[in-house]
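Task: fold both queries, return tokens.
Query 1:
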Amino acid sequence: MILIIEIKNLDSKVACECMETGNKGDVWLNSGAWLAIYMPLFILFFVILPQQRKMQRSITLKIKKKKGLIIMANEVIKKYIGKNCKISTGPYGTNIVGKIIEINENWIEVETKKGIQLINAEFVQSVKIYPSNQIENRMSQEP
């Protein structure tokens, strides 16, 4: 089966005649063929693409909310300035034991046995506060 498309120019208007040729001669394109051509386009432009845009918007909103929570987490950590703590950055990250000195934007400055270390607050997973005598024992045990 061969699909022939004829384009005619009539007074600056373009007319398109689509014909299907087969064994029985020239026949206009039937409604089943129109559905087969235009239904996938309709589904793509009016169903699939709007759903993808909606999902992208919801993901960006979640990211913005998460960033807002990170700023709030910094505010929560600020009340522990001057206290001894253990800061964990996740299962594959490091655990830092020391005293929180200062918090600037996304960075936490911690005084440890090795010296002063900076931690990116976005990667902090947990903070555990220790009494001052217990932290000295922990700092002496760590390499």
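Query 1 returned. Query 2:
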Amino acid sequence: MSIITGLYLLRAALLLPLLAWILLQSGAAMAQSVYRCGSTYSHAPCPQGKPVAVADPRHPAQVQQARAQTARDQDLADRLHRENAEREAARRKVLKQESLQARKNALAQQRALLRQERARKAARKHDTRKVLTGSPAS
């Protein structure tokens, strides 16, 4: 065994108890009491505060199953959100096209009415000239 490998093993042997102690302390921190103080919650006791049980009574397998179900539900929600956004985008595109077509139709109709009005005015003007010049209207 080389010196470097021996140092790594020694370092690991020294760090292992430290890591175990840190994990125990974090577990103890999770097991701390929580108090309800009116409408707020606190880790520190307060006057007339009541302890609240916050431990998860479920078996680890149940917790894992619940997390997996939550992940599936989130995936489904994300997929439905994307599909809905795509449908909305397609609908907006169709509405925009319909709106543009309706404007084009309205402008075409307005132009046709203006042409008809000009033709009527021209016809009246032509008839008026015939009457003024004395030529019979045909």
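Both queries returned. Flag for query 2: Residues 28 and 122 are 99 Å apart (CA to CA).
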